[in-house]
Each structure stands twice: as structure tokens, then as C-alpha cells.
Amino acid sequence: MMTCYGQAVSMRRSMQAICSVPGEDGRRMKKNPRFYFALFMGKLAYRVQRMLRMNATFFPGKLAIRLCPDFIGRIGKPEKIVAVTGTNGKTTCCNMLIDILTENGYDLMNNRAGSNTDAGIATALLRYASIGGKARKPLGILEIDERSSKRIYPYICPTYVVCTNLFRDSIQRNAHPEYIADIITSAVPKTTKMILNADDPISSRLAPDNDRVYFAIRQLPTDKQECTNIINDCRICPRCSTKLLFRYNRYHHIGNVYCPNCDYASPTPDYPADVDMEAGRVKMELHGRCEEFTLVSNSIFNIYNQVTATAVLTELGLTPDMIRRGFGKLSIVETRYSHAEVGGLSVITHMAKGHNPIACSCVFDYAVHEPGVKEIILMPDDDRNHLTTSENITWAYDADFEKLADESIARVVVGGIRAEDYRLRLLIAGVEPDRIFTTPDERDTPKLLKLDGTDKVFILHQLYKTEAARIAKEDILKEVAANEESH
Length: 487
Fold this sequence. Notes:
The protein is an alpha/beta fold and 487 residues long. Helices cover 34% and strands 20% of the residues. The chain contains 15 helices and 17 strands. The strands form three sheets. It has a nine-stranded mixed sheet, with helices on both faces. A six-stranded mixed sheet has the order 12-13-17-14-15-16, sandwiched between helices. Helix 13 links the parallel strand 14 and strand 15. The longest helix is centred in the C-terminal third of the chain and has 21 residues. The radius of gyration is 23 Å and the shape is globular. The N and C termini lie far apart (66 Å).
């Protein structure tokens, strides 16, 4: 199996070498009539879509690339570019960077509005370009899909590539995180500086020949000595294949590792962080000085995002005071996380990325460790695509649904077209049958809650169920408010 995999990787690299666009020279390609036509049509498509109140994040760039395949190579780009990639957290991290830089007066371009593939990058570039195709912004913050690296980096040479982490995700298209790591490593330009997670033994090994710095979170009181999750995608030493040991484990393969047989170990972080959950503070070493910041969230995912953003902003030259000022006005966007209270009941929506067992496991863990009696609404389905949603839920058996068997969770309500399949997964996980309720329609999930003696309701939804989660939250709040008035 490994031999076949190695041959496949070797063949793919050979084909890339034959078929790819030019390297460093390809990023400074001259403009030609075909490019100008594509630029005009792309800008026209963008204007028309915006007039029609459409997002215009994908099609204009797709059209430009169709008319001029090397469009991204020919259009003007900012002098400095930060590319953010990774399995989890890249959107939130990008939002943090954009908000804090904008707060501090930086003039920048970004693809915040939508697509992070080559078409989305092309749309962002043409949107911010002049009519002659020149870049009008000196700085770019770009979220880039991991698998799109080989279609983007041959045309764009980022100043920095930031990788939040690499995990198992959408297995039917992403295979294994080592495969994704190989795609990124083979595509990243040699002159790009890497900003990497020292706590992730997979992403910390990206582009080994490039200049790099690392960020990390030092040991927390809640850390363990062994991985207790179902999934650990980095069990053996990448040098000698000996079983890796943890100095401490945070979740899945995230933590501080070392090999007992050779000198392989987690890299020493340039930007280490100490987190005090109770005080809501994080202390980071920035160029030898300890600086303190207020936490924007008590979720470990978002704490990592904050630490990542702080490292990037420091690399860009922002002072600690500038970063503090930015974090002071920052909040996680409501499509990712929201919190509301009525009548003593807290209702929390939290995105749990579909087909991503690690993201879901961490969100489950977050809900379990929150104090009080909880009820959980799960919206795991993406019914836009029945091929991946209706026919493939194997990821659910990699996710730690066992956490939802905790005694503090009084009820689990599942809404969606495969709700009964998730009932089965919950039963296998040890959740008692009389605590599981299902409905094929997410809109009916609030009706299945008990709300008697409940302190918190968590609505855990996948990316494309944000609106359904918002409606469910509003229905719960209205019902509780109405009951309060009647009493």
C-alpha cells in the first residue's frame, strides 16, 4: 500500500513538473490582449452580480480564468501577501487579521467575502485591481484552500504562508492530512516564510527548506499524557517510524511530542503562549518580551486562532499595543459562534464543520465542559449535495460522539435528512435511547427540547446550516420569553 502511495505521489509530482506554469518567472508574467479581455469581462461580471445583489465571489474569477488560464499570474498583486491555509480556523484567523489591520489603518485587499479556491482568489485580485490590471492595495490577506495550493502558488508568491493545522477532513476528497501536507509543500514558493503551529506535528513539517517561525500554546491544566480521541493522525515518528510519545496532549495529534528513539520532537516555538482560562487572558512572548492580551473566546480552537493571528501581526510589524487595540474591538462572527440569554437560559450556536470529525469532537468537548445542565441540537447534514451527505457519513465514526453521553447532557436532538443514522451513531457512543430525539426537518428541532431545568442549549451546526441554526435559536428565545411573560 505504501509503495503504491509513494509511486502515486512521485507520478503526481512528475506531472506537475511537466504541466505546471512557470515558477518564479510565472509570477511576473506580462499582460497581453487576452488578459485585458478577461479582466474586462471579469470586472463586468462582478458589477452585474453585485447589481443583482449576489455575492460575486466565485463566478467573475472563474470567467477570467476560463478566458485567460494564467490570469492570476498576469494580474497585479500586492507587494506583501499573507496566505492563510489549514483544515480548521483559517476563516476565523483571516477575519481577525483583516479586522485588526483595518483597525490600525492598513489598506488591504482580501477574499473575505467568499471563495478560497483559484476562482475566488482571481475574483479578489480583479476586484481590487485598476482597469489596467495593477494592484491598488499594498497588502493582501488571502484565505487559500489547501488543495487549491497547486493552482494558486505557481502564480502568487506570498510573503508569508500561515498554516493553522492539518487534520482529517472530508475524507472522500482530501484522503489523509499527510497527502494534503505534500500538496502544500510541493506548491509553496521557496522564498515564502512559513508561520506554523509547533503543536501540530503534521503542519509544522511543511516546506522544510523554507524560512519559518512557530507559534504554540504551552501546557494547559486540562492537557493529557495520551491521546484519548478516536483519531490520532500522527502516531509514529516521521524519521524512524517509532511510536511518538506526548509530553502533553491537547486533542487528537495536537500537543508536544517527541520520539524516544531519535532526536525528532516538536519544534521550539518563537511565539509561545500561556493561557489563563479563568482570568480570560493570554500571555505571549513577542521578540523576547512578555505581552498580555484579553482572550476573545474560551474555545481552544479560537484561542489558537488568536495566538496565530498575534504571531502573524507581529511578523507584519504591528506593536503589542496595536494588536491589543485590535483585539479589544474584536468578536467571533455570529455565523461561527453566537450567545444569547433569556430567562436564565443560555442559547449558544457553534459551527461544527461537517465531514470534519476533529472540529465536531472539539465542539462536543467544549459543550460538555461548560457548566450546568445542557440540551444539544445537532444539524450535521449538508443537503445541498446529496452525493456527499446522503451517501457518506463515515466521518461520524471518526468523531467523538461518545462525549455526548456525558451526564450533564439531558437531551440530544438531531435534525436532518440522515437523522436516524446519527441516532445509531449516538447509540453506539453510549447515549441512552430516551435522551435521543430526531426529526428530518431542522426547523422542528426546537419543538423536541424539554427546557425544564436546562441551563444551556447548544445548537451545533455545520457550515451550510447557519441560517437554520439562527432560526432555531430565535424560536427557542421567543418560546422562553413567552413563558416568562405568562408567569
